[in-house]
Amino acid sequence: MKKPCLLLSLLLAEPLAGPRPVAAETPPLQASVQATRSFTDPRTGITVVAGELELPSRALWVLATSGAEAGPLREVFVDAPALVWTAVEGERLGDINERRSLEKGRMDLSRLSWACRQYASDHDGIGPATLADLDPKHFAQSTNEQFRATYVLAPKVPLPERNWEVPENGVELLPLAFEVRPEIDDGKHWVAWNNGRVLREEIDPERVAKYDLKIVPRGLSREQQLSRLGETARYRLLARRQGDGNGPVSIELRDQLSGQRVQVEWMLDSLQPGDQALLRDWGRLRVGVWQRINDVCPTLALSVWLQQARGLYLAGESDDSGEGRRRPGNETTLFGVLGGRAAIRETLQLQDIAGSAESDTGGTNVPLSAITGVSVKAHDYDAMLNGQPGGRLPLVEVVPHDRFLACFPQPSAMVQFLDSGTDFLFHLSSGFTGSSLRYDLLDRYLARLGMTREFMRSLLESEALAEVALFMPDLHFIDGTDVTVVARMRDMDRVALMLRLVGMGDLSQVVARTTATGHEVFWAKRGDLLLISSRRSELESALGLAAVDGRGSLGRSAEFRYMLTQLPVRDITRGYLYFSDPFLRRLTGPEVKIGQFRRVVVRGQLEAASAGALLYQRDHGRPATDYETLVQQGYAPDVWRRYGGIRLEPDGRTVSTTYGP
Predict the structure, then answer these.
(1) Which of 1, 87, 239, 385 has its CA 20 to 30 A from that of 474?
(2) How far is it, in rounded angstroms, from Cα 407 to Cα 157?
(3) Residue 352's pLDDT is what?
């Protein structure tokens, strides 16, 4: 039911309000940048300029226009003093942040207290004399210099097994540890007691003298900081300089809180020399923007940029980008096991590829035949048939016995999969990553075979095909696999006519064609069979089975014939998917796992190299001429070529010299 009272209030709001006065727009303030410095990185050639200007404090100044460009300047950032952030974050949020920073001391001392109690249990109830007495295996922070400078132990304090025995049973209540570098200078610090409690107390001069403590606060409280903030503050502008031009650059800033604007003039003709810190400060602001975008919408390019930024701009600062957090898709799933990804992650440590820079030299080559695969004994399907012939699908008698099979007894039923916009078979791939990303795999593999949805639709709807089967050597659809199509023709003349429309004539021999994506696709005909494959060896395997009347094929295997007796193909069957025992053994065996490992490694190298090439173009305003340039300037680590060379094409594509595009 509608709410008339709410509707009435909405309708009457404007008439009752009357005409609204329009406030005159406040003219922008004027400011100029002073003390401009410039630094050009000798490795990358990036030039960063930075200057200072006086602006009203208690404001969040940002560029008034999007794009962060002004004349020869690119990616202009406003760097506010820390005191300004303290002023504008709000009283409640400021108090929360202050309490959060103070809470770290309590947590650290609680962990230290527990470690001391464990130590005392092995030393007659007496705690350690110093932090160095604690075993780093049980308390790793005992060797951390920053931790040791922040907290001090009271030596050999009695620590009973039960906290409630203090101060009873002859055990005196004593301090166990002290915080000597408190976060703020408010006259308090954290103290851990031997009864397990950790309290923030007033600094006791007698206790300081007794334990010879030197207490040096890290900073001021929020109130103390704000008392030092004047009406204006010294801000910095940092930007990447690209191109020539020494004239004044005009930049408009806007306060996000009040809407006040400032027109800034920046002269670039008299620059003082700067140092590496300019590049690092500008890079930190740039990386902060990337990280915020990547937190909301993660992309491969941004992930690579965040990793490369540490070497390019941040002079080896520690990684706090969050890339080490658990990524989606690292969970072990059924399809992860069937697809081999789980085995790859565990046995080949796929996650550590990016950080592995060791050389391959000196290793031992082990033939694949020497690596044992799955050794579990299969069912005796011949005995289970008990002398009976079992079921039969003639089309499957050209499919190798260790391939995944997808058979469609009624090809016209496949049209609905084309209409759905998502591919039926390739939905299996989402199980590999644990995500619901759309990879448009059907279109990708149709293009891999040199086809389009329209061509497939017309071929299926023509009823010129009696049945269709697809087979694949693995299920690595997302990473890339080979697909072979076998179709039995009902109307060979109509099929021949449609093939001529796409440039296919005599197919008595294997015919290779290059697709628009740069891949080769192979076509052949044998009798009433039409065969199309993305790999010649897969097509020749099918042709070889056809030449020997299917001996050794999946269709002739006892396993498949027996399974057809349990789950036969009927008139209502639209699709028949089959994971044979040899296929599953092969899928989880060393040949496929190592092959997939190599594909994933090379694909990751190419994608990361492409991201590095994009970042180079963004930094320099022009594309890199070759891959060596990316390596030399730090946009692509040389280790990415460990499993094969990488070539940078003029159009920006990266190509593996070993495996192709």
Answers:
(1) 385
(2) 76
(3) 42
